[in-house]
Design brief:
There is one protein chain. The chain is mainly α. It has helices spanning 5-14, 27-31. The protein has one domain. The chain is 36% helix and 0% strand.
């Protein structure tokens, strides 16, 4: 499965805002949000 910019933008725009303190601290934390089967986890 490939992610396209339009799809990712749509998900980001529809997401509920969260405090900055909950944001990933590093790129590895960000990449951990995508599982090994390449599905976005929430």
């Amino acid at each position: 499965m490939r992610f396209f910019a339009e799809d990712l933008l749509s998900v980001l725009l529809e997401a509920t805002p969260r405090p900055t303190a909950q944001a990933p601290k590093t790129i590895s934390d960000t990449l951990a949000k995508v599982s090994n089967v390449r599905h976005c986890r929430t």
